[in-house]
Backbone:
């Protein structure tokens, strides 16, 4: 390569030779002069990045404050009375959730670097905090999206409910609340998927890596997740639930009002009944009847008589089973299934199930609605939560126990009509209180449900609302059930007191002694119809694998007797009848004591040898004993 003259006549070196030439002082000076500009440029870039970071930090802080404020608003709404919320309230929640969603987007954008997010996640100390914060934002945003859709569905449903209520009039043409809810089945599926995703993200958050202010918000997130859990129950069971309320065709139920003064194995004698029909989630019709009206229809239409249980035949003299004794079973679901079969012969409208209620339920409803006044035999009677049973029986007493007196069972029908009319006009808060009350009653077996639809029946069994003899599969169950064998009304005067003495296990077996005292508190000098002699049929169901060793009374020759035997006990006014049965049972960590509906609450004591602090309880619901810690 050669030097070439440039246009000025000076030699110009090729780049290679220029690079090989030794640096002159001028060259060094020129390069030194360039360094300040380079440094200044770098500093300027750093300054710009710092300003940008500061601006992003300010933006993030502003977005965080907006998120915090929106969460505070939503928490305040959640702390309020949700049962009184209207469609406008849900619209406000929907708007707040939408704003929260936007604020979360701003916050997420502000904390995400333009480049190198993956690198930030791998940085020590900073990375875990960044990852935890991003996950928290994503979990809340996912849950917020689900909440927006939930609020919208709730708003539409409430609007329909406000328009048509729970009792549809002929003039109503719009969709009912149930129609609206059913139209959102796919939306509910999506919402639940979002809730599951939010829960999965929440599980992956390292709480220790979050700033204290963010960590303090985790309980609120968990509460929100828990609050949406009932949606899963509604959604999973929605098709069955809708069918039960007549979403596609009318759903009709036979209601048995059990008179606990005339005790039966599954509650009380069903002297008054009602047929209640639902269409599209609304009450369509109801009618009350005397049980003997149903019996007459059954007797006229049945072709094949049913052999009655031993006590019904032996003590009541029935050659065939009357429909009023169809539920003569400790297991209500089994008796109700038999009742449905017998009902088909009556020619009455087809039914979708049977529901039994005790007077305690009517009393609870009166506690919610307040007292009512009904006219009986031309006389106004004020009926409240405390006197409902006495007022119903009062008319029988006035008429000298005459079963044919027209005003006797009509009292309950009159009361039922007034209550139904009052409830159909009730606000949503009262209806929600009613639902809660009915759920508690079902938990305690004062409401028992049998459904023809096996899907609905499976739901009732799962929640233990069907009155099954063995309510919890796999848990050893002990049940003592009684039924009056006389036609008087003194069952409520008998107060059972039961002591279980459970011995320590030996070779995998325990010996248990059940000692029951039936204390008759009736006055021997009072009206024997309400306070006199009782004769009880007592059935003892022992845990599976148990063996009866002996008993104070001889078991009756009952072909359907449970494994603990059936017994005939006499109980006199003012006296106590003692009854014991001793048995072996396989060792188990638990023992479920089943509560019989309708009976005066049993006073239970569970103890073992040398026990200084036995378990005592009043059986208003099933009780599960922990045998591993009994008296320890």
Residues:
């Amino acid at each position: 390569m050669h030097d070439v003259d440039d246009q000025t006549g000076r030699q110009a070196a090729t780049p290679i030779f220029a690079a090989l030439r030794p640096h002159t002082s001028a060259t060094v000076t020129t390069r030194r002069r360039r360094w300040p500009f380079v440094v200044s440029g770098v500093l300027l870039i750093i300054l710009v990045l710092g300003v940008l970071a500061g601006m992003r930090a300010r933006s993030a802080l502003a977005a965080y404050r907006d998120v915090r404020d929106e969460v505070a608003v939503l928490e305040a709404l959640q702390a309020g009375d949700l049962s009184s919320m209207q469609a406008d309230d849900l619209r406000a929640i929907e708007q707040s959730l939408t704003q929260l969603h936007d604020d979360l987007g701003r916050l997420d954008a502000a904390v995400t670097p333009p480049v190198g997010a993956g690198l930030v996640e791998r940085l020590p100390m900073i990375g875990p905090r960044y990852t935890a914060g991003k996950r928290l934002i994503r979990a809340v945003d996912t849950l917020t999206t689900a909440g927006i859709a939930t609020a919208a569905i709730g708003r539409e449903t409430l609007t329909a409910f406000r328009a048509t209520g729970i009792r549809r009039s002929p003039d109503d043409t719009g969709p009912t609340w149930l129609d609206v809810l059913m139209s959102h089945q796919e939306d509910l599926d999506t919402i639940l998927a979002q809730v599951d995703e939010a829960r999965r993200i929440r599980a992956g958050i390292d709480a220790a890596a979050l700033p204290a202010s963010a960590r303090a918000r985790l309980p609120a997130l968990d509460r929100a997740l828990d609050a949406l859990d009932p949606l899963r129950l509604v959604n999973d069971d929605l098709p069955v639930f809708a069918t039960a309320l007549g979403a596609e065709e009318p759903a009709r139920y036979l209601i048995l009002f059990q008179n606990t003064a005339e005790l039966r194995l599954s509650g009380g004698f069903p002297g008054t009944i009602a047929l209640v029909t639902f269409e599209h989630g609304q009450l369509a019709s109801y009618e009350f009847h005397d049980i003997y009206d149903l019996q007459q229809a059954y007797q006229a239409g049945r072709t094949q008589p049913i052999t009655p249980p031993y006590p019904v035949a032996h003590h009541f003299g029935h050659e065939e089973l009357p429909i009023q004794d169809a539920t003569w079973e400790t297991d209500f679901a089994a008796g109700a299934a038999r009742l449905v079969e017998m009902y088909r012969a009556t020619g009455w409208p087809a039914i979708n199930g049977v529901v039994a209620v005790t007077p305690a339920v009517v009393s609870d409803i009166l506690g919610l609605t307040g007292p009512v006044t009904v006219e009986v035999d031309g006389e106004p009677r004020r009926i409240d939560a405390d006197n409902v049973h006495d007022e119903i029986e009062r008319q029988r007493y006035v008429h000298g126990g005459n079963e044919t007196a027209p005003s006797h069972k009509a009292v309950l029908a009159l009361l039922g009509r007034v209550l139904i009319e009052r409830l159909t006009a009730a606000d949503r808060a009262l209806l929600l209180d009613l639902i809660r009350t009915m759920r508690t009653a079902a938990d305690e077996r004062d409401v028992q449900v049998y459904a023809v639809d096996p899907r609905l029946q499976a739901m009732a069994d799962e929640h233990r609302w069907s009155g099954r003899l063995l309510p919890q599969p796999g848990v050893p169950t002990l049940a003592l059930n009684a039924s009056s064998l006389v036609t008087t009304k003194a069952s409520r005067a008998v107060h059972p007191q039961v002591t279980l003495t459970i011995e320590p296990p030996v070779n995998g077996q325990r010996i248990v002694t059940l000692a029951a005292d039936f204390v008759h508190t009736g006055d021997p000098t009072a009206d024997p119809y309400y306070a006199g002699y009782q004769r009880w049929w007592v059935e003892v169901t022992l845990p599976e694998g148990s063996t009866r060793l002996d008993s104070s009374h001889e078991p009756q020759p009952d072909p359907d007797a449970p494994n603990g035997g059936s017994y005939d006990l006499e109980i006199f006014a003012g006296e106590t009848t003692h009854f014991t049965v001793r048995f072996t049972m396989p060792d188990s960590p638990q023992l479920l004591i089943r509560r019989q509906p309708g009976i005066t609450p049993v006073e239970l004591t569970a103890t073992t040898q040398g026990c200084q602090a036995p378990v005592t309880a009043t059986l208003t619901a099933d009780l599960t004993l922990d045998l591993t810690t009994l008296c320890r």
Notes: Residues 122 and 451 are 59 Å apart (CA to CA).
